[in-house]
Amino acid sequence: MGGAFAQLPEVQSHTRFVPVYDLKPELFEGVQGVLVPAHVDQRALQRHEPLLQRHLDDGGRLVLNGHMVHLPLKWLQPFIPLPQRNEVGLQVMRLADHPVFDGVDPRELTYRRGVAGFYGRGHNPMPDGARPIHGIGPEQHPLDWELVLPSGGRVLMHGGNDLWMYAADATSARRIAPQLVNWLKEGVTA
Fold first, then answer.
1. Please, what's the largest Cα pairwise distance for the chain?
2. Per residue in 90-126, pLDDT tens?
3. Most CB atoms closer than 10 Å: which of 102, 106, 130, 159?
4. Could you tell me if residue 114 is inside a domain?
5. CATH classification at residue 89
6. What is the pTM assigned to this prediction?
Protein backbone atom coordinates (compact mmCIF):
# COMPACT_ATOMS: atom_id res chain seq x y z
CA MET A 1 0.00 0.00 0.00
CA GLY A 2 1.42 3.28 -0.94
CA GLY A 3 0.85 6.38 -2.96
CA ALA A 4 -1.80 8.88 -1.94
CA PHE A 5 -3.44 6.45 0.49
CA ALA A 6 -0.26 6.04 2.56
CA GLN A 7 0.04 9.84 2.73
CA LEU A 8 -3.33 10.36 4.44
CA PRO A 9 -2.83 11.55 8.04
CA GLU A 10 -5.40 8.95 9.21
CA VAL A 11 -3.27 6.21 7.67
CA GLN A 12 0.09 7.48 8.86
CA SER A 13 -0.98 7.69 12.49
CA HIS A 14 -3.03 4.50 12.76
CA THR A 15 -1.58 1.94 10.37
CA ARG A 16 1.15 -0.68 10.18
CA PHE A 17 2.04 -2.22 6.85
CA VAL A 18 2.89 -5.92 7.28
CA PRO A 19 3.69 -8.33 4.43
CA VAL A 20 1.37 -11.34 4.44
CA TYR A 21 4.41 -13.60 4.89
CA ASP A 22 5.23 -11.91 8.22
CA LEU A 23 1.81 -12.24 9.89
CA LYS A 24 1.86 -13.72 13.39
CA PRO A 25 -0.57 -13.71 16.33
CA GLU A 26 1.15 -10.93 18.29
CA LEU A 27 0.69 -8.51 15.38
CA PHE A 28 -3.08 -8.78 15.82
CA GLU A 29 -3.04 -7.71 19.48
CA GLY A 30 -4.95 -4.46 19.88
CA VAL A 31 -5.65 -4.25 16.14
CA GLN A 32 -9.08 -2.92 15.25
CA GLY A 33 -9.02 -3.46 11.51
CA VAL A 34 -7.11 -5.31 8.82
CA LEU A 35 -6.88 -4.24 5.18
CA VAL A 36 -6.09 -6.92 2.60
CA PRO A 37 -5.04 -5.60 -0.83
CA ALA A 38 -6.37 -7.05 -4.07
CA HIS A 39 -3.00 -8.37 -5.16
CA VAL A 40 -2.08 -10.20 -1.96
CA ASP A 41 -0.60 -13.67 -2.23
CA GLN A 42 -3.90 -15.45 -1.58
CA ARG A 43 -2.31 -18.80 -0.84
CA ALA A 44 -0.10 -17.23 1.83
CA LEU A 45 -3.11 -15.38 3.27
CA GLN A 46 -5.13 -18.59 3.27
CA ARG A 47 -2.57 -20.13 5.64
CA HIS A 48 -3.44 -17.38 8.16
CA GLU A 49 -7.16 -18.24 8.28
CA PRO A 50 -7.06 -18.97 12.04
CA LEU A 51 -5.56 -15.51 12.74
CA LEU A 52 -8.16 -13.74 10.59
CA GLN A 53 -11.02 -15.71 12.10
CA ARG A 54 -9.79 -15.02 15.64
CA HIS A 55 -9.55 -11.31 14.78
CA LEU A 56 -13.19 -11.36 13.67
CA ASP A 57 -14.25 -13.45 16.66
CA ASP A 58 -12.68 -10.77 18.89
CA GLY A 59 -14.85 -8.09 17.23
CA GLY A 60 -12.29 -6.82 14.72
CA ARG A 61 -12.90 -5.60 11.20
CA LEU A 62 -11.53 -7.02 7.98
CA VAL A 63 -11.54 -5.50 4.50
CA LEU A 64 -10.92 -7.87 1.60
CA ASN A 65 -10.26 -6.53 -1.89
CA GLY A 66 -9.93 -8.35 -5.16
CA HIS A 67 -10.87 -11.58 -6.84
CA MET A 68 -10.68 -14.01 -3.93
CA VAL A 69 -10.15 -17.52 -5.27
CA HIS A 70 -7.92 -19.04 -2.56
CA LEU A 71 -10.21 -18.20 0.31
CA PRO A 72 -8.78 -16.77 3.55
CA LEU A 73 -11.96 -17.67 5.48
CA LYS A 74 -13.65 -21.05 5.12
CA TRP A 75 -17.13 -19.59 4.72
CA LEU A 76 -16.26 -17.35 1.74
CA GLN A 77 -17.04 -18.35 -1.83
CA PRO A 78 -14.76 -17.96 -4.87
CA PHE A 79 -14.89 -14.94 -7.17
CA ILE A 80 -17.28 -15.07 -10.13
CA PRO A 81 -16.43 -12.93 -13.19
CA LEU A 82 -19.26 -10.93 -14.69
CA PRO A 83 -21.00 -12.68 -17.57
CA GLN A 84 -21.42 -9.35 -19.38
CA ARG A 85 -18.36 -7.08 -19.32
CA ASN A 86 -19.60 -4.26 -21.47
CA GLU A 87 -20.64 -0.77 -20.39
CA VAL A 88 -24.08 -1.95 -19.23
CA GLY A 89 -22.64 -4.90 -17.33
CA LEU A 90 -20.09 -2.72 -15.51
CA GLN A 91 -22.59 -0.22 -14.06
CA VAL A 92 -22.25 0.15 -10.27
CA MET A 93 -25.46 0.73 -8.30
CA ARG A 94 -25.81 1.67 -4.63
CA LEU A 95 -28.00 -0.90 -2.90
CA ALA A 96 -27.56 0.25 0.71
CA ASP A 97 -25.91 3.07 2.60
CA HIS A 98 -22.59 2.40 4.29
CA PRO A 99 -20.23 4.81 6.10
CA VAL A 100 -17.28 3.91 3.86
CA PHE A 101 -19.22 5.12 0.81
CA ASP A 102 -20.99 8.12 2.34
CA GLY A 103 -21.14 10.92 -0.22
CA VAL A 104 -19.65 8.79 -3.01
CA ASP A 105 -21.48 8.92 -6.33
CA PRO A 106 -21.76 5.36 -7.78
CA ARG A 107 -21.35 6.81 -11.30
CA GLU A 108 -17.86 7.89 -10.26
CA LEU A 109 -17.16 4.28 -9.33
CA THR A 110 -18.49 2.98 -12.64
CA TYR A 111 -16.32 5.38 -14.63
CA ARG A 112 -12.75 6.32 -13.80
CA ARG A 113 -11.14 8.73 -16.21
CA GLY A 114 -13.99 7.98 -18.61
CA VAL A 115 -13.47 4.21 -18.63
CA ALA A 116 -15.85 1.67 -17.07
CA GLY A 117 -14.62 -1.40 -15.21
CA PHE A 118 -11.84 -0.21 -12.89
CA TYR A 119 -14.02 -0.59 -9.81
CA GLY A 120 -15.06 -4.16 -10.42
CA ARG A 121 -15.66 -6.91 -12.98
CA GLY A 122 -17.27 -9.59 -10.87
CA HIS A 123 -18.04 -10.51 -7.30
CA ASN A 124 -17.46 -12.87 -4.41
CA PRO A 125 -20.92 -14.24 -3.52
CA MET A 126 -22.28 -13.12 -0.17
CA PRO A 127 -22.50 -15.53 2.74
CA ASP A 128 -25.83 -15.90 4.55
CA GLY A 129 -26.63 -12.81 6.56
CA ALA A 130 -24.46 -10.41 4.53
CA ARG A 131 -25.86 -7.12 3.27
CA PRO A 132 -25.12 -5.89 -0.27
CA ILE A 133 -23.79 -2.33 -0.55
CA HIS A 134 -23.10 -2.01 -4.28
CA GLY A 135 -24.39 -4.16 -7.08
CA ILE A 136 -22.87 -4.41 -10.54
CA GLY A 137 -24.59 -4.96 -13.84
CA PRO A 138 -28.27 -5.49 -14.62
CA GLU A 139 -28.37 -8.47 -12.22
CA GLN A 140 -26.93 -6.31 -9.41
CA HIS A 141 -24.32 -8.88 -8.42
CA PRO A 142 -23.03 -8.02 -4.92
CA LEU A 143 -19.74 -6.28 -5.75
CA ASP A 144 -19.46 -4.77 -2.25
CA TRP A 145 -21.03 -6.38 0.80
CA GLU A 146 -20.72 -6.37 4.56
CA LEU A 147 -21.18 -9.22 6.98
CA VAL A 148 -21.67 -8.58 10.69
CA LEU A 149 -20.78 -11.67 12.71
CA PRO A 150 -22.42 -12.63 16.03
CA SER A 151 -19.14 -11.59 17.73
CA GLY A 152 -19.53 -8.05 16.38
CA GLY A 153 -16.68 -8.64 13.93
CA ARG A 154 -17.29 -7.26 10.45
CA VAL A 155 -16.10 -8.18 6.98
CA LEU A 156 -16.27 -5.68 4.14
CA MET A 157 -15.73 -7.45 0.82
CA HIS A 158 -14.96 -5.55 -2.36
CA GLY A 159 -14.63 -7.71 -5.48
CA GLY A 160 -12.34 -5.34 -7.36
CA ASN A 161 -9.19 -3.23 -7.15
CA ASP A 162 -8.15 -1.76 -3.80
CA LEU A 163 -10.76 0.61 -2.40
CA TRP A 164 -8.01 3.07 -1.46
CA MET A 165 -6.85 3.50 -5.06
CA TYR A 166 -9.19 6.50 -5.26
CA ALA A 167 -7.42 8.46 -2.49
CA ALA A 168 -6.05 11.12 -4.88
CA ASP A 169 -9.00 11.23 -7.29
CA ALA A 170 -10.69 14.52 -8.08
CA THR A 171 -14.11 12.86 -7.73
CA SER A 172 -16.31 12.00 -4.77
CA ALA A 173 -14.61 8.56 -4.74
CA ARG A 174 -11.67 10.17 -2.92
CA ARG A 175 -13.88 10.03 0.20
CA ILE A 176 -13.58 6.22 0.33
CA ALA A 177 -10.00 6.03 1.69
CA PRO A 178 -10.37 8.25 4.78
CA GLN A 179 -13.84 6.89 5.49
CA LEU A 180 -12.47 3.35 5.23
CA VAL A 181 -9.80 4.13 7.82
CA ASN A 182 -12.43 5.63 10.13
CA TRP A 183 -14.65 2.56 9.71
CA LEU A 184 -11.75 0.26 10.57
CA LYS A 185 -10.90 2.27 13.69
CA GLU A 186 -14.42 1.59 14.99
CA GLY A 187 -13.61 -2.13 15.35
CA VAL A 188 -12.96 -3.34 18.86
CA THR A 189 -10.69 -6.21 19.80
CA ALA A 190 -10.45 -8.02 23.13
1. 46
2. 999 999 999 999 999 999 999 998 899 999 999 999 9
3. 159
4. yes
5. 3.40.50.880
6. 0.92
